[in-house]
Amino acid sequence: MKVKNKLFLSLFFLFGVIILLGGMGSYYLRWLASDSAAIMKDNNRTLSYMRTIEESVDEVNYIILTNDTVKQEISSHFDSIKSIMEKQMANITEPGEQELTEKLSRSLKKLEEICNSQDLITPHFYSTFIVPIVHQVKDLSGSIYLINEKTMIQKNEQANATAEKAVLYMGIFCSVSIIIALVFMLGLPAYISKPLETFEEAIREIARGNYKVSIPAKTKDEYGELANSFNTMAAKLEEYEHSNLAKLIKEQKRLNAVINQLDEVILGLDENKRVIFANKHCIKLLDLERHKLIGKYAPDVATNNPLLNTMIKELMIGFLEDETVSYKPLKVVEDNKEKLFAKNIVDIVEKPTGTNRNVLMGHVVILTDVTNFAEKDKAKTHFIATLSHELKTPVSVIQMSAELLRNKKSGDLTENQKELLTTIENNNERIRRMINEVLDISKIESGTIDVTLAKENVEELIEKAIEGVQLFLDEKKLSINKLIMPKLPLIKVDAHKTVWVLNNFLTNAIRYAPKGSLLEVKAIHKDHRVEISVTDQGAGITHENQKKVFQKFTRLVKTESGGTGLGLAISKEFIEAMGASIGVYSKQGEGATFWIKCLPE
């Protein structure tokens, strides 16, 4: 039987007990009321009638004894007696009362006839005829009175017995009802709660990872069905626990835990730019609640979150095909302190089984706190700049001394002395150039780099750059092929810094180009930009080195002499400060092409 039906029957039984208890009480109360009403209604009336008749007869007797003429005075009393007798005849309820009432009626009629037959009632007539009838009337009324009185006593005793019986039955029924109610009160909660306790304990075991727990299905009610369902669930969970999916989810949770413990800010997006995970540091930095970020379309959230907008900006805008992929550091205020974070975006690609093509699976945005490194780098740069400033004085003195030695006023020099002086001048020039580069990078890092933009002719800039390296070209017997598109628009750049960058491109090309080879300088108008490039026929640059070539202090050949590894880094800062872009194309063994792209005026 269902638990619902059991509860319904239990409550229905208790409801029936209440109704039966009320019904019995009503029944016995009605019974007592009926007995009491019978006493009051029938017998009490008869007693009243008999008393009235006796009083009326006494009145008639008194009138006869005190008056000589009685007809008129007693006629009204007899009329009253007749009326009462009629009522008595209609109120006969007890055995024998009918016969006595009829005799009483006849005696009263006889008394009336005797009284009405004489105009004057003499004492002899009174004692002979009237007194016997009066005694007879009183005897009959007394007998009727006695019958009803005894009946009233019997009915009263009967009512008392009924009341005692009702009390007894009600007491027994109430006692039985109380016992049954106690059984329900003690048994029903235990019946309902005990299976629940069993389920609660089993659920705790499931929560602990014990999927072998089971609940015996002893009944066929809802608890039994629930126990069967629970056992099936536990079996499925155990099966799931040992499945590959469970292992994958476990590994995913482990990976999430590791990501959450990392100091880096990590944000994961799927291929549709929806946020799929974010570690605690990321949630804290974005100042968002987790449920308002995970599963949301990142650009929608970024609308009201400037930091997130900066983090995913490159994902939404993208890079040009020939543009170098680079991400600017971010300045973020965390814990009331301004910090610098290096940004990197990793594209997650995978080859689906059975295919050779890469499919984009998502992106991971990583912010690394480089505040300490930046501060140390600034300190280092400041130190180098200070050192460079200090070195400028001895360099200037060396240069002045060399010029004085070459002056004929100082005397003639031997060939050996001239060679030594030339060596001194070359090395001094090299030191001076290195000092200037270090000073430039120091200015760039301190944010004090000055850019003066003006409209410039592309061909003139190229000519000035070539003129600056002409001696080096002659030394390696290199030639330059200029390919300049006619009618190029003017570009808005800083002429001095642009020439310096092109000069740096040419210097590097000369350094790595084979002797007697050809360098190519090209200027074209393409995709609404003016592109200027320098191409050599050297060994080329690997794809890995192309990503590092614009970083500071990077030298592709560790054994080469000359250079500080700052030239391209400074070039990058100069070009980007002018709102232009810089990059390199290269294949190993096929030379390298360094280019800048400037906006036309």
UniProtKB/TrEMBL annotation:
UniProt keywords, alphabetically: ATP-binding, Kinase, Membrane, Nucleotide-binding, Phosphoprotein, Transferase, Transmembrane, Transmembrane helix
Residue intervals of the HAMP domain: 190-242
Organism domain of life: Bacteria
EC number(s) reported in the record: 2.7.13.3
Annotated localization: Membrane
Membrane spanning stretches: 7-29, 166-188
PROSITE patterns: HAMP, HIS_KIN, PAS
Official protein name in the record: histidine kinase
